[in-house]
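quick one, 422 residues, struct below
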Amino acid sequence: MRTVTLNTKQQRGVEILTRLDAGALEVGAAAELLGVTPRQVRRLRARFRQEGFQAVVHGNRGRAPANRTDPDLVEQILALVVPGGKYHDLNVCHLHERLDQEGRLVIARSTLDRLLKQAGLRHKAQTSAPVHRRRRPRRPAEGMLLQIDGSPFDWLEGRGPKASLIGAIDDATGKIVFLVFRLTEDQVGYLLLLRTVALSYGLPMSIYHDRHTILRSPKQPTLEEELAGQPPMSQIQRVMAELGIESIPAHSPQAKGRIERLWGTLQDRLTKELRLAGITTLEEANVFLPGFIERYNARFAKAPQDPQSAWVVLPAELDLNYYFAVRETRKVRADHCISWSGQILRLLPDPKGPSLVDKSVTVHVVPEGDVYLYHDRHSVAYRRVLASDPVPLKPRREMVRQPRPVDPKATARRRGWLFAQG
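---
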């Protein structure tokens, strides 16, 4: 005799079919209790009369599922994600993308998530108590608003120096438009950001940023600035103001939540990509970033509500060295030289231009370190004065001695004193 083991649900099904077969229960009532159609109840009753208790046991019981994941594939995946494995700290989505890029291990993301949880290698994320905040809708068109920020972090996980990642994300699409590694969050990084975005996409209408002193001057306005109605500006503020970009300072990290969430994603995802690529220097990391940005945008960027872009195209005649530079003002001396950063810069004569003696010129330093001089937005040619250069001598002025006026009384007194001594 064959032994049939029934679970609680199957035992309940046997009881209902027994009562149905005995006439104590109607077909409609049995269908409602079993959660099937009346037609299925009749099939089950006919099978129950032939096979007995076996009728309530599914026919696939004890068989391997046709869509079962290959055990060899499961073993290969688990070997990659166990502690010490190649992908031991990748999250499920990131791990699924890496496996898909390699093309050797094809598996659905949901199946991968289930297998890792069954093996105890991944756990459900614990979320903190929700905080009520008013959601700010995305800007409708690309280029209407950029969020910029810097994130200091051990991006190379000890294989190289700690650095700050300076980046910008488009508010409408969530697309990364710029990333660069710098040793610290500095002016040069933000100048590179503004110039690269302007050349690659155009000028954004506005930029959302924190209150870092690089991006917003903490100084109080001077009397001259108050009279002119000009607030004190940092170098980056000045660049944005001159290019017509609205500067919006955030009052909290949550206000610029999209780029803050980007840092969380990159600190998890980018650090592992850099490790898998074997990168140990910031120079190699910066070379790696363009390909990473392209893959990230293809995976996470969204289509804007308005397909019409809001980027402002740069004029063809725009002098990049004038705008995208750190700027200082100097006064031209009588010898047509200025002193800047421990150097002497001599202005070259311009036959068509006026003399710049006693006038102000601005020294512009671009991110690459090159220096340019300007006067009223016109470029001024110059050369550095080296220590070996001869120093021009000033012409000596002839001194003409004037006769002293003679005081008769003083002369008489002097003579009288001399005679007394004799």
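The chain has four domains: 8-56, 71-118, 146-220+229-300, 324-385.
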